[in-house]
Amino acid sequence: MSAVRAVTRYRLFWPAAVLAVLLVANLAFTPDFFALHLRGGHLYGSLIDILHFGAPLILVALGMTLVIATGGIDLSVGSTVAISGALACLHISGSDDPGSLGTVLTALGYALGAAVVLGLVNGVLVARAGVQPIIATLILMVAGRGVAQLITDGQIITVTSDPFKLIGGGYWLSMPFAILLSGAIALLTALLTRSTALGLLLESVGGNPVASRLVGIRAMRLVGLVYVFSALCAAVAGLMVSSNVSAADGNNAGLWIELDAVLAVVLGGTSLNGGRFSIGGTVLGALIIQTLSTTVYTVGIPPETTLVFKAFVVITVCLIQSPAFRAKFAARAARSRHTSRSHTQAPAVPEVGE
Q1: CA dist., res. 126 & res. 61, Å (int)
Q2: What angle do CA 204, 118, 141 make, to 5 degrees?
Q3: What is the C-alpha end-to-end distance of the chain, expressed in Å?
Q4: How far is residue 65's CA from residue 74's CA, in Å, rounded to a whole number?
Q5: Which of 256, 279, 257 is nearest to 268 (CA)?
Q6: Please, what sign has the CA dihedral across residues 271, 275, 281, 287?
Q7: Are 171 and 157 in contact (CB under 8 A)?
């Protein structure tokens, strides 16, 4: 029992267990759910699809994790997704040679450069001006969506460019390039935050910002940097989304992805109060969200009830992961067992006159 209890207390146990249950449950509706096929040198299968379509969410959730670790939140990532895709597609569609590598690299430079500016705006408002993170990023969430529509002139910009298509819809080493790119960024983020002092500094700023400043940590600079990193992650996700469909939609690209990102971070075990965070847990949380979306379509749940179904599952998972809830549930079960044993073992009361 002690070994089982130790395993269940491990931070990544519950997200991994929930993901495993969701994946296995799909076997009831898709018997070859775990099958992988190699066609034309490319890997196909349901698992590949989950990783592929979940790659943008993983990236956005990674940036959100570091922001939440400092005690903030970034609601502007969806707008950043739309702006980055719009800028890249606008440049490619207006160039003389949309298929040239130089054109695509320039488009990527515009998108990532704009993301740095947007991240700096959020960072300055939060760290320097003292605006509440939810308000500061809400401003850009609303205004950024309008900026994306101004860039696209309210239209969907379509492009035809093989180098650009590689980012979100191409393959490399038999795998979708988006999976490899998101995996590399996640691995790099984990190494930087766990193999260096950066992770401890972020946790100290999120846990107690006043004390961290008093001991010499440049808290405002760190806060600004995490908002820039979040914007860059969102920009890469936007490039993936627009590349996958070869188009930029300023109205719908990245719509509500910030909510899925927050859910992924919470499902991964990171507290919204700031402090300790888990990169691995966030990746698992993002995969849970994507697997849940895949399961909804596989089972055939009506589209109008999809969000309700997802909300129910997310609430259930959060309760399962909550140590306080599990402790209360275990205590109530123990009391119930004790009460039943007491009733069973209670001596019979002798009748009057015996």
Answers
A1: 19
A2: 90
A3: 48
A4: 10
A5: 279
A6: positive
A7: no
232 neighbors 63 (Cβ within 8 angstroms): yes
In 140-220, beta strands by DSSP E: 156-158, 171-172, 175-176
Amino acid (1-letter code) at residue 24: V
Distance (Å, rounded) from C-alpha 143 to C-alpha 147?
A: 6
Tell whether pTM > 0.70: yes
Q: How far apart are CA 49 and CA 291, in angstroms?
A: 9
| pLDDT at 349 > cutoff 80 | no
- How does DSSP classify residue 8? H
- Which residues are 156's β-sheet partners? 249
The residues with which 171 forms a beta bridge, in sequence order, are 176
Contact 160/98 with Cβ under 8 angstroms? Answer: yes
Angle at 203 between CA 320 and CA 286, to 5 degrees: 45
Residue at 168: amino acid letter: G
Whether the CB-CB separation of 269 and 281 falls below 8 Å is answered with: yes
Side chain identity at 64, as an amino acid letter?
A: M
**CB-side neighbour CA atoms (13 Å) of 80:** 37
Q: Is the dihedral of CA 314, 36, 168, 180 positive or negative?
A: positive
Q: What pLDDT digit, counting tens, does each position of 15-67 carry?
A: 898 899 989 988 888 888 899 999 888 999 999 999 999 999 999 999 999 99
The encoded tokens of residue 240 equal 């993936």
User: CA 125 to CA 59: how far, in whole Å?
Assistant: 23
Length of the chain: 354
Tell me how far apart the 2 most distant CA atoms of the chain are, in Å. Answer: 109
Contact in structure between 75 and 138 (CB atoms under 8 Å)? yes
Report CA Rg, the chain. 24
- Cβ atoms of residues 231 and 116 within 8 Å: yes
Q: 3-state DSSP call for residue 43?
A: strand
CA atoms 173, 295, 58, 106: torsion sign: positive
Q: C-alpha angle 86/89/95, rounded to 5°?
A: 135
Helix axes of 279-299 and 257-267: crossing angle, nearest 10 degrees: 120
Integer angstrom CA distances of residue 160 from 30, 67, 130, 157 = 34, 35, 44, 10
Mean predicted confidence (pLDDT) in 333-341: 72
